[in-house]
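The records we work with from here on pair a chain with its fold. Each token is a code from a learned vocabulary of local backbone shapes. A record is reproduced here so that you can trace the correspondence yourselves:

_____
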Amino acid sequence: MEIEGRDFMNTPPLKTVRFGGNVVATLAKFKQGDTSDYELLKHQLADPDIKDAQIINWLQEFRNCVTQLSKDHEQLIYVALRLPWLGRSPAVVEEYLSFLSNLVSAQTVYLRACLKMVVSNFKPSEFLPVCVDILITQYDLPRSFDQCHQALQLIGRYVPSTSCFLMPILIENFPFVQKSSRTLECYVHNLLRVAVYIPSLRRDVLELIISRMLKLDVSAPRGEIEDVEENAVQQELKGEQEEEGLFDMDEDVCSVNSSPAGTNVMVHPVAERLDTLMVVLLAFIKDMCHVNGCLDVERTKDLYKDLVCVFDKLILPTHASCHVQYALFYLCSFRLALAEAFLEHLWRLLQSPSHPAVLRQSAAGYMGSFLARANFLPVVTVRACLDLLVPWLHLYIDSQDSGSRAYCDITLHGPFYNACQAVFYTLIFRHRSILEGNMKKGRGLHMRFLSASKNVKWLFDPDVYPSIHRKYQLVFCYTIIERNNRHVLPVVRSSVGGDCVSTNTNPLDSFFPFDPYVLKRSSKLIEPLYQVWEEPCSDADEDDFLRGETPETKGVMGMTPGSYESHLHSPSSVGSPPISFLQRPYHH
């Protein structure tokens, strides 16, 4: 066998020394009870210094007797599958792929073993150091990953039921969330590549990835991330000041920032891993929805359906997640119809009595936060959603006011209270854009919600929703709130056959899922779509507002009590994702 253009110094000799007989003879001896050559064959296949020519010769012999490789030779096949074929010469890769196709065609009993072999290579070797910026090129991870996907697609062509066996293996091989960012990034990237050429697995793959990301998300609260990052900056500044005092360094030298606090790397370890995965997931969403830079409507709709299903199953029931839900936020920014479909979906969940109250409350939180924070939503959409929420709240008040349950109790009225929060939260962020078009109509619309004081006094409590400023001329509401205790919420409960018991508690935990996004690298895609909090307008503008005049503004302004958000800031830089799933392979 000759290889054209072979390099004499770097190419191993084609004639190599081997012991024992060929594979056919070895299998015949094994069948007769002589296992000496059989064990020798396994030993030679497991040689870490095996040469390309040896691999090719062994694989060719295996292909010639593939029909004899029954379940009795399971250990031998497992050793053969572990041959180091990735990153080898094209001849080795081609021969190995041919061996795989012949094996799964003739002996489907080895399908799981072949799939496990491929998936195990979706992660970089654990023997490589974590800092592999230089070694990436040496070990050529992108090329190795391409060869793995080539093998997986080849198996899928010969065994149509591959997808049924593949998903459990993908779940089993998912690395622990405590693994390095590089390991998680490689594996998630390869999972999403599988979802591209096996569309039937896409929803399951997204569910697997998002479930792992949620574990990271809930273990890294927004406040904790901000504290760690701020402390890192303070420590860096303190160190620079000490160096200035000790060495009197030049100003230009001191301005050089080489620490993690001055880069896009998160100091918080969990946030760093989550940020890395968010970059990969958002890049996948963008690449799946766009073809040659143009939005593909049908592909986008299909991906939206999958993400909404994952949202209902995993994200919506998860309390205190801070960042994973932005995947759907980002997708909805591609087309207004998607954003409106998402709002309609949340609205159906909120008003459906067949769903658990906790999910209805969460849907209200998502609805209000999305209306307030998505700057790609036009005011007509925001107003239309308020036109749905406000009458629903009125009907709820009318249905409860005359009954025996007309008292504050989150267990009974939780969805209502969260819907109130959604309305007020939306007004706080979007009141300027809502009212500037038609002042009289806009104010009249939302005053209807607060018009009948006799019906709503039992509902107003500052621990249930934020107070509305005197700026909206809702004086009676403000007076009621001032009379209430600002620290505890009176709740009346009664057991079956027992007396009503009044207790003081504060069970309503305000949750606005699209509060500020604090991950550094992935925020480059979120920041252009995000409505940040802006300072209240001046006193002169307030006077004009109360006289019925709308002050000029270039953006959406708002005001809110300080209890809504303790740390509001804009995410950092603006940019585009570095990863493409449809046009180029993985790059670290």
